[in-house]
Amino acid sequence: MAKIYSKKALASKDLKPKKEVVSFLLNYSQALTVVKVNEKSFEIIAN
Amino acid sequence: MADLHIPDALLVKNYVDGNEAALATLIKRHESKIYGFIYSKIADRDISNDIFQDTFIKVIKTLKSNSYNEEGKFLPWVMRISHNLIVDHFRKTKKMPMYRETEEFSIFSVMSDDALTIESKMIVDQVELDLKKLIEELPDDQKEVVVMRMYQDMSFKEISELTGVSINTALGRMRYALMNLRKIIDKHQIILTN
Questions:
Q1: How do the residues of chain A divide into helix, strand and coil, expressed in percent and rounded to 5?
Q2: What is the least distance, in Å, from the CA of A28 to any CA of chain B?
Q3: pTM score, two decimals?
Q4: Is there a domain that residue B194 lies in?
Q5: Measured between CA atoms, how close is A1 to chain B, in angstroms?
């Protein structure tokens, strides 16, 4: 049997973040509203 | 794939104007570059996902609060944010390093359970029981000093006061007690180990 001496490649070519992360970000973006009042900004997150 | 022809700057402008789909396009366009960059530095998928998420939370907040000005390009700006978060991550882990089990590295090589196993606990109990029996064999004056010193944790000064002898006598009794214990152990070939 041939031995495999190489370790697992650290970075495979097509790396992508988890789908959950991307969908969280899109939902977060939809829920977030930033309101600026007198140079103060308020973050409002809609449920 | 018409999206690919829209420049980043326009997508950013559309997103700031309220077009949520523009963000999805931006993420889709750059996700593998940004995630790959983070992963190349971190080498852990879960942490890379966390940093990717934090990066875009910053991006979203900055864009939504209209604080972003299109000075440079979108991607280098996002890369800079993720770079800063990576540096933050390394600063944090330097203070409190995290180890994760991999194929080559077992977490148990650096971690051990100090609690006694059932077997060694039984041995310890047995040794203590044997020792108590041996102490019972000692002459009364010596036994008294050993019990007070070892089991009641009294000082020789206290022992001498309580038993009405000088400190030197108490020390001498302790010395003879230990010698006698060794003698008994040798004589009966008792092994007290754990």
A1: 30, 25, 45
A2: 8
A3: 0.56
A4: no
A5: 21
